[in-house]
Design goal:
The chain has 142 residues and is mainly alpha-helical. It has helices spanning 21-26, 33-42, 46-49, 51-62, 65-80, 87-105, 127-139; strands at 2-3, 9-10.
């Protein structure tokens, strides 16, 4: 148990991210693949690390018509494949992390081979959602 700068108590917790270096090297990973993987996997923890930001990302996504349409279409396909969660639970726990990570780390210049085909420039990130991701991108120094 620790205390923050304002004296509030908080618990320490840790997370582990394992990176298979030999597999990344085998598939010609770029020079920044470790950093990109840490950021990408860390996005799954955003709800724990910065819940206010996670909520802003969610709200901006579902309140942006372009992004909401994209999410609904994706959810429809997943439901046809057996997805059991509600739309909101699915977006919050699975899809949002993926599309934020794709925007931040995807594209032809990605160091992560599996992210190089992510068509960031063609996907409907919308205006407000994209602006919120851009704030995160700046805060991560990407």
């Amino acid at each position: 148990m620790g205390r923050d700068k304002d004296g509030r108590r908080f618990s320490y917790w840790t997370a582990s991210i394992y990176i298979n270096d030999s597999k990344f090297q085998k598939f010609n990973a770029g020079p920044n693949y470790k950093k990109e993987m840490l950021i990408g996997e860390g996005l799954h923890l955003l709800k724990e690390i910065d819940p206010e930001r996670a909520e802003r990302l969610y709200q901006s996504a579902v309140n942006d018509p372009a992004t909401l349409g994209w999410l609904k279409e994706s959810f429809k396909r997943e439901a046809e494949r057996g997805e059991q969660r509600t739309f909101e639970r699915w977006v919050r726990t699975s899809r949002l992390d993926q599309i934020v990570g794709g925007y931040l780390l995807g594209g032809k210049n990605s160091s992560v081979p599996t992210m190089r085909d992510w068509p960031t420039e063609r996907l409907p990130y919308g205006k407000t959602f994209k602006a919120e991701i851009e704030k995160l991108k700046a805060d991560l120094d990407l």
